[in-house]
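ok so heres the complex, two chains, lmk if somethin looks off
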Amino acid sequence: MNYVAYLILRRLRAPLITLIVIYSISVLGYVLIPGLDGDGNPYRMNFFHAFYFVSFMGSTIGFGELPHEFTAAQRFWTLFCIYATVVGWIYSIGAVIAILRDHTFINLISRTRFRHRVLNLREPFYLVCGYGHTGSAVVSDLCRRGIQSVVVEIDPSRIDALELDNHPFDVPVLCADAGEPHVLKDSGIEHPQCIGTLCLTDDDHVNLYVALASKLLSPDRMVLSRVATRDYAGNLRSFGTDHVIDPFETFADYLTNAVVSPYRQLVYNWLISPEHRSIQSVIRPHKGRWIICGFGRLGQAIRKRFEEQGLETVIIEPDPEGRNVKEDYRVVRGLGTEAPTLMEAGIQNAVGIVAGTADDANNLSIVLTARDLKKNLMTVARQNQNPNASVFRAANINMIMDPNMIIAQRIMVLIKTPLLIRFLEAIQNNDEEWCQKLVTRFDVLVKENALDSWSIKINKEETPSLYELLRRGIPVPVSALTAHPQKRTRQLPAMALMVVRNGNIQLLPADGYELRLEDEVLFCGLSWVLAQMLWTVYNNNVLRYVLSGSESDSGYLWRRLIRKQGHSPK
Amino acid sequence: MNTEKVVFAFFILLAATLNFGFFLGEIHDHTHHNVYELFAALVISLIATVMKFGDRSHLGAVLLATSLVADVQLIIAAFLWGYAVNVSEAGMTAEMTASVVSMSGGALLANMTSVVLLVVETITVRR
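and the predicted structre for the whole thing:
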């Protein structure tokens, strides 16, 4: 039903009744008050004349006294009626304008418009709950990839930010609490085109609720949630949330990798982040004593992993009792911003320092003080507030932990292709030498540019021409897909990273590796290669050219002609 | 007690009773039918209609419809009366009176339906 119409009607009740009452009293007055006609005989207006007079008096005033000149009594009544009707009209018109400016009314209108826009979406979209720094990064990334998103955000100033962000296409946005069932319903959580729910609000409880609602309403849909506490992470996983991203755990993994196996970390870095580091930037393994300032969520996550890797750690924490620090840990009481505390923690023998407190100023101070005390120290700092990003960058810190960026990057990887995550998990078992070779190949492939990745599934819908050839038993090597569709001897700047066949993984398939039906292939390379590759897998002629070098007959008619000629001599 | 409901019921009943009062009497004798009563019935009926605006329930919609029917019938009756007195040369004839009163009779039926619906709704409210 149309709520807006009902609301207007309901609000119009009082003004309309006021007008009816004023008009009826005025009419009645004219009928009751005796007057004199032109000859001085007494007469009474009837209802018809009274209504006629009141009608034009109320709106115009000044048609003259009808049907005869008025008596003094009638003029008294006219005076009253003039003011009554004018006030009545002002009140009614004012009430209508007030409705149009009313907050609830405006909200209702925008809500209705939002609902219709979401309902009419005909392309797949992601539902993004929370348009903070993470949300805005994800939405603009989705837009860049041409994927539609729908945003729900509780803070009106963030909604304004979205309008100013200038996305290439319209993003339906609603200012409401995602934790309310009807809000989720309006934002299309039941919409058949909704391909994923991204819970990115600051409130774990809201994220939990949205994830739960999404899983209940459509169990197959991808649900991704950020999370800040371990309890909620466990809770989210318990009902099958596909991806739970804890920025602290993710960063701790990242840092541990960088320390223990820098080349593998570089592979991660190239594949996940668009602004990858150069191959020369590899941080020498820093095995030795690490100082961790702040034993909060980040400190605990890092300490746990370093312990597993056998790295020595010293913790600096102002309140060790409150943080439940175990007794066998080496702990120094303090903030870590002053030299004496750092000296006590043994900074002279340390190889790295993690400034992981919840205060940005303290973190910067820790890093700068530590660097003064010891050269060649590897510095890691946690950045809590987004506006401080430029200061952190200027501080020349080796690794900056920015929770928003971590979550946004992770989400983009998942959205790009789920195969990439499988690939990154699979290379856990490979050694540093293997990773180093891979990074070198990346470097040759894309140089300074961003390394993109995508996957291709061989089936009738996505790769019709390839499907057709394979179905007829013609072998197609994986290198055919990375050949240039116009000049087959040239290779496109892309390479196959992985082939998934019946759930089994083949890492870095050789050029001659023969594809089969239903294979899934993960590629990486420059972004524009994807368009060229689709050309090959879609178009029969291009694929045949790439395989054999011959540009054969194309059209249906042409093919029939050729076949006839070929057959006729026999 | 819901004040809105009291006012609502008051106007619906008043519209019906005024209408009934006008309708009473010989159908073709205009001295039996008071023009002020017709005026009052029309005004109250209009107010009752506006009071039903914006009710989202199904019953509210039906009540609005019956009220609108009563309004239309009464406006036609008032128009006929005004035409007979001011325009027609024959004046308020017995036929004209009969038309006016039968029109108000139709409005009475609609008003009675409103009252019945109101009573039904009241009975279904359990307390």
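quick notes: Residues 159 and 175 of chain A are 7 Å apart (CA to CA). thats all i got rn
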